[in-house]
From TrEMBL:
Cofactor binding, per record: Binds 1 pyridoxal phosphate per subunit.
Source organism of the structure: Paenibacillus puldeungensis
Subcellular location: Cytoplasm
Role: Catalyzes the reversible conversion of 3-phosphohydroxypyruvate to phosphoserine and of 3-hydroxy-2-oxo-4-phosphonooxybutanoate to phosphohydroxythreonine.
Gene giving rise to this polypeptide: serC
Listed Pfam families: Aminotran_5
SUPFAM superfamilies, alphabetized: PLP-dependent transferases
Annotated positions of the N6-(pyridoxal phosphate)lysine modification: K194
Cofactor: pyridoxal 5'-phosphate
Name of the protein in question: Phosphoserine aminotransferase
Length: 359
C-alpha cells in the first residue's frame, strides 16, 4: 500500500477496507451487496441507525442532538446553514481563519447579513483567530468557525463560549481526531472523506431545536427539517458511504475511542513537527507552533525548485499527496486518523535522507 498523505479523499484504515471487501458481494448472508439494497429495507435501516447512534455514543451521548446524513459535501452546508438559520432580521458571525472559512462566509453573504467575529487574515492565516472575547450583537443567529483549516494547517485548541448563541463548526478535516464537547456546539458538519469514510456523505450533528424551523420558502431538499423528520431517508441516502462510516466508527472504538485516537494522532504529529523543527531550517513549519494542526502539517523549503524536487523524489519512493494545496504552494502531509504511525516514520526517514543529499 502507498504511503498516503492525501488531503481528501484520504487514507482509510486497512482493516476497514478489508472488512468491507469480505462482505462486498454478500452482506451478512443476504446474497446482495449493501449497495444493492433498498434504503427502505430493514437491513440497510439497521446500518443507518446504528451509524448515527455509534457517532453520538463516541461523543458521549449528549441529550437533544440528532445526526443527519446528507449529500453535497461540506460546500453545500456553507449555503444550507444560512438558508436555514440566518433568517430575516438576524446576522451571523464568521471567524475568518483561512481558505475554507472564507468559502463558508462567501456563501452566507449570498443569503443574509454577516459580520467578521474574529480574523487572522493579518497574520496570513498562519495562526488561529483570537476567539476569547467575541463581541456578538443581540440579533446574532450563530457564530461559525472552521475547527481545522485543511489548506493552511491551523487548528483550534479550544472553542469559544458563545452563551445562548449557537456555535457552528465546519469540522470536515478534524472531526473525531480528538474528543470534544458537543454540548458547546449548536451544529457541526463535515464532509466524510477525511476522517469518517468515503466521499459522497456529509454528516450534520445538531441540537434538535435548530433542525425544526426551516423558513417556509425553502425547497424541500434544502430544509434541515425535511431530513430531521425523515431520519435522513427523505430521498435515497448515500448508503454505501454510510455503511463504510459505520465500519470506520467501529474501528475508532477499537483504537480506544477518541481518547485513544487523539493519543496516536499526537504521537504522529509530534514526530513530524520535531523532524521539521530539528532540521536546522532546512524544513520550515508554516504555522505558529501553538496553532499547528495535528491533521494537516504544512511546511516549506528554501525554494520552490527544492520543494518540487522533494515531491518528485518522494513519489518515486511510494509517497502520495505531499504537494501543498495549489492556492498556497509548499508542502503538506495530511495525517488523518487512518494514516498509520509507520507511514509517518517512513516519511521522516525520507525527509532526513533528502536533507542529507540536498542540504
Ligand atoms: N471544509 C473544509 C475544512 C475542507 O477541508 C473541505 C474540503 O477539503 C471542505 C470544507 C469542502 O468539502 P466538500 O468537498 O465535501 O464540499
Amino acid at each position: 500500500r502507498a504511503f498516503n498523505f492525501n488531503a481528501g479523499p484520504a487514507a482509510l484504515p486497512l482493516e476497514v477496507l478489508e472488512r468491507a471487501q469480505a462482505e462486498f458481494v454478500d452482506f451478512q448472508g443476504t446474497g446482495m451487496s449493501i449497495m444493492e439494497m433498498s434504503h427502505r429495507g430493514a437491513v440497510y435501516e439497521g446500518v443507518h441507525n446504528d451509524t448515527a447512534s455509534r457517532l453520538l455514543k463516541l461523543l458521549g451521548n449528549p441529550s437533544g442532538y440528532q445526526v443527519l446524513f446528507l449529500q453535497g459535501g461540506a460546500s453545500t452546508q456553507f449555503a444550507m446553514l444560512p438558508m436555514n438559520l440566518l433568517t430575516e432580521g438576524k446576522t451571523a458571525g464568521y471567524v475568518k481563519s483561512g481558505s475554507w472559512a472564507n468559502k463558508a462566509l462567501k456563501e452566507a453573504k449570498l443569503i443574509g447579513d454577516t459580520f467578521i467575529a474574529s480574523s487572522s487574515e493579518e497574520d496570513k492565516y498562519m495562526s488561529t483567530p483570537d476567539v476569547s472575547r467575541l463581541q456578538l450583537p443581540e440579533n446574532t443567529a450563530y457564530v461559525h468557525l472552521t475547527s481545522n483549516e485543511t489548506i493552511e494547517g491551523t487548528q483550534f485548541r479550544e472553542f469559544p463560549d458563545t452563551g445562548s448563541v449557537p456555535l457552528i463548526a465546519d469540522m470536515s478535516s478534524d472531526i473525531l481526531c480528538r474528543p470534544f464537547d458537543l454540548n458547546q456546539f449548536g451544529l457541526v458538519y463535515a464532509g466524510a472523506q477525511k476522517n469518517l469514510g468515503p466521499s459522497g456523505l456529509t454528516v450534520v450533528i445538531a441540537r434538535e431545536e435548530l433542525l425544526k424551523n426551516s423558513p417556509k420558502h425553502l425547497p424541500t431538499m434544502f430544509r434541515y427539517d425535511t431530513h430531521a423528520e425523515s431520519n435522513s431517508l427523505y430521498n435515497t441516502p448515500p448508503s454505501f458511504s454510510v455503511y463504510m462510516m459505520n465500519e470506520v466508527l467501529k474501528w475508532i472504538e477499537e483504537q480506544g475511542s477518541l481518547e485513544g485516537i487523539e493519543e496516536k494522532n499526537r504521537e504522529k504529529a509530534d514526530l513530524l513537527y520535531q523532524t521539521i523543527d530539528n532540521s536546522g531550517g532546512f524544513y520550515r513549519g508554516c504555522v505558529h507552533p501553538e496553532d499547528r494542526s495535528i491533521m494537516n502539517v504544512t511546511f516549506r523549503m528554501a525554494s520552490e525548485e527544492l520543494e518540487k524536487l522533494f515531491v518528485k523524489e518522494s513519489e518515486k519512493e511510494g509517497f502520495v499527496g505531499l504537494k501543498g494545496h495549489r492556492s498556497v504552494g509548499g508542502l503538506r502531509a495530511s495525517i488523518y486518523n487512518a494514516v498509520p504511525y509507520g507511514s509517518i516514520k517512513a516519511l521522516v526517514d525520507f525527509m532526513n535522507q533528502f536533507q542529507k543529499s540536498h542540504g
